């Protein structure tokens, strides 16, 4: 099964690269400048804020947001079904999603199953398809995350969220179908309890886990996918078959954002909790030196890579490869990102210079849906919809 998936992916990769051969510029470009405040063709707009009241019953929490976003959510799910039917013309895969997945909703930890039920009801969409949508991000997320400290000790945490690899390449328009349909679903959310903000996040409407968030005044957190043969699809399959001793990655990050009380406590939870999919957790605190990349296998922590100012390590940067190994040559976002940060230097690091780095190809690419910038000391989260006009690399 693993070999078949890898072989199919390589075939598709070859096809896409071939179709783009005349249009792809060099995989690195000069570091951009002057892109912040966001402007120009790579900026598609600001992201709307919503509030989720954690004092409400889980079934009711997302109704206002979903009532605004049910049309683009329905469009995305239909596109996913079309892709599934293209690979499995019998329609059996969609049938399994609609008939089998709903029976698993009760196996999800509280309150996530009830929230997903409420989203399905509010959107008027099949429960199995909303659950599938929430599983997606355990498997297909490709990202760049960074935490950097300036010379005053202020920490900046930022990320590009790239999503949709191998999900519907449009040869004519040179876009990923799922990526294009995801952008209208990007939202900023304030999670509140007792009328006080518990944490904030940039997320997708209908998705109850967290990939990007900040606990005001305490820590910031992003999650990147980690490629491994013992991947998320194996964890999801095990869950379906009844082995449920691991935690969903995005549910873990949400739980940490909601309940974590300190950088160190969050670091321990993210490094020691058994999870369904391998991952990188990028964590920033509220004091000088508090930042790290936690490299996770499903059942163990492989490495914790800390910020180390005395040794000159003033930033930690993670894409989708172990930091001690070279990235794939066809997917090297790390080298150009580091080049831009090193050119900027610690003295000049800021939202503006980090946004410039995240706007430089191929760090910015056809999969990029949004960029989020966070400053825990200023309790600031800014997020922007992104676009990479052609010519642009596919990932």
UniProtKB/TrEMBL annotation:
Span of the signal peptide: 1-21
Subcellular location as annotated:
Lysosome; Secreted
Q: Mind listing the UniProt keywords for this protein, alphabetically?
A: Disulfide bond, Glycoprotein, Hydrolase, Lipid metabolism, Lysosome, Secreted, Signal, Sphingolipid metabolism
Residue ranges of every copy of the Choloylglycine hydrolase/NAAA C-terminal domain listed in the record: 143-326
State the EC number(s).
3.5.1.23
Q: What class of enzyme is it?
A: hydrolase
Catalytic activity, reaction form:
an N-acylsphing-4-enine + H2O = sphing-4-enine + a fatty acid
Active site positions: 143 (nucleophile)
| Entry-linked Gene3D superfamilies | Penicillin V Acylase, Chain A (3.60.60.10)
| Top-rank taxon, per record | Eukaryota
Cited Pfam families? CBAH, NAAA-beta
This protein is called: Acid ceramidase
Species this chain originates from: Pelobates cultripes (Western spadefoot toad)
């Amino acid at each position: 099964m693993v070999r078949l998936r890898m072989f199919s992916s390589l075939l598709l990769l070859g096809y896409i690269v071939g179709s783009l051969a005349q249009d792809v510029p060099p995989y690195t470009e000069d570091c951009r400048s002057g892109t912040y405040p966001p402007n120009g063709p790579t900026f598609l707009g600001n992201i709307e804020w919503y509030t989720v009241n954690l004092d409400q019953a889980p079934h009711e929490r997302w109704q206002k947001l979903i009532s605004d976003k049910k049309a683009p959510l329905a469009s995305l799910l239909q596109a996913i079904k079309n892709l599934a039917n293209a690979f499995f013309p019998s329609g059996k895969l969609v049938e399994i999603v609609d008939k089998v997945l709903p029976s698993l909703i009760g196996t999800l930890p509280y309150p996530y199953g009830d929230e997903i039920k409420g989203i399905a009801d509010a959107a008027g969409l099949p429960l199995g398809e909303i659950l599938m949508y929430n599983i997606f991000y355990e498997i297909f997320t490709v990202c760049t995350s960074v935490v950097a400290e300036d010379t005053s000790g202020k920490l900046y945490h930022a990320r590009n969220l790239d999503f949709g690899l191998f999900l519907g390449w449009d040869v004519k328009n040179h876009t990923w179908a799922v990526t294009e349909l995801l952008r209208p679903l990007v939202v900023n959310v304030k999670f509140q309890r007792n009328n006080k903000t518990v944490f904030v996040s940039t997320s997708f409407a209908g998705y109850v886990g967290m990939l990007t968030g900040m606990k005001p005044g305490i820590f910031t957190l992003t999650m990147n996918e980690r490629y491994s043969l013992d991947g998320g699809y194996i964890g999801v399959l095990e869950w379906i078959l009844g082995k449920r001793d691991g935690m969903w990655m995005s549910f873990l990050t949400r739980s940490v954002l909601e309940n974590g009380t300190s950088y160190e406590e969050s670091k321990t939870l993210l490094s020691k909790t058994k999870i369904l999919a391998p991952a990188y957790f990028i964590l920033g605190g509220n004091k000088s030196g508090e930042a790290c990349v936690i490299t996770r296998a499903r059942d163990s922590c492989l490495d914790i890579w800390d910020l180390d100012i005395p040794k000159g390590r003033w930033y930690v940067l993670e894409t989708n490869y172990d930091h001690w190994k070279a990235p794939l040559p066809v997917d090297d976002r790390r080298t150009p990102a580091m080049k831009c940060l090193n050119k900027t230097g610690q003295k000049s690091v800021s939202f503006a210079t980090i946004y410039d780095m995240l706007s430089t190809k191929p760090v910015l690419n056809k999969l990029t849906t949004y960029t989020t910038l966070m400053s825990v000391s200023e309790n600031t989260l800014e997020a922007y919809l992104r676009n990479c006009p052609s010519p642009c690399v596919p990932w």
